[in-house]
Design a protein that fits this description.
It is a single chain. The chain is of the alpha/beta class. Helices cover 40% and strands 16% of the residues. The chain is built from five helices and eight strands. The strands form three sheets. A three-stranded parallel β-sheet has the order 1-4-7, with no helix packed on it. It has a three-stranded parallel β-sheet with strand order 2-5-8. The chain has a two-stranded parallel sheet with strand order 3-6. The longest helix has 19 residues.
């Protein structure tokens, strides 16, 4: 088995039939070993419990909110400036996003082609948000990915 990600390690029990309790313990140790080796951003994107006050995540949010603020202040005629900010914020400019546009990080938003988003959109992108090609989104729409897997299990 080839492991291409150095942060993820594999634990293989050569005798899974021998002791089921030990096999389950090994699986849990493997899972928690992976989680403990992740940084807060990786935990967030995987839907695990993470620390939103982490300095790197806080810095990323400030950058994204600053870019959103600049974007929302531009005039409708400033199309090139808008494209530049969208390219920096979400990695593409092949979309039209009307003001006001808000997001937490930007790097978790993925447009698979041309997307049109009307006024007052909110993307709380703690996990990946993917919008398909040729999608038109109406005004006052929000996309919220704030729940972790453990939160959903407790509901």
């Amino acid at each position: 088995i080839k492991n291409t990600n150095p942060k993820i390690f594999l634990i293989i029990n050569p005798f899974p039939f021998f002791n089921n309790y030990n096999a389950q313990t090994t699986k849990n140790q493997m899972f928690y070993g992976i989680i403990n080796s992740m940084n807060e951003r990786e935990k967030m994107v995987c839907g695990e419990i993470y620390n939103p006050c982490d300095k790197d995540l806080s810095k990323d949010r400030i950058i994204a909110k600053t870019l959103c603020s600049k974007y929302n202040q531009l005039l409708p005629t400033q199309k090139e400036e808008k494209k530049q900010i969208l390219s920096e914020l979400i990695g593409t400019n092949k979309c039209v996003i009307e003001t006001n546009f808000f997001c937490d990080y930007g790097y978790n938003i993925n447009f698979q082609g041309f997307v049109y988003i009307n006024h007052n959109s909110v993307f709380l992108d703690c996990a990946p948000i993917t919008i398909g090609e040729n999608t038109f989104i109406g005004p006052n729409c929000g996309f919220y990915t704030l729940f972790t897997q453990s939160m959903l299990k407790s509901v």
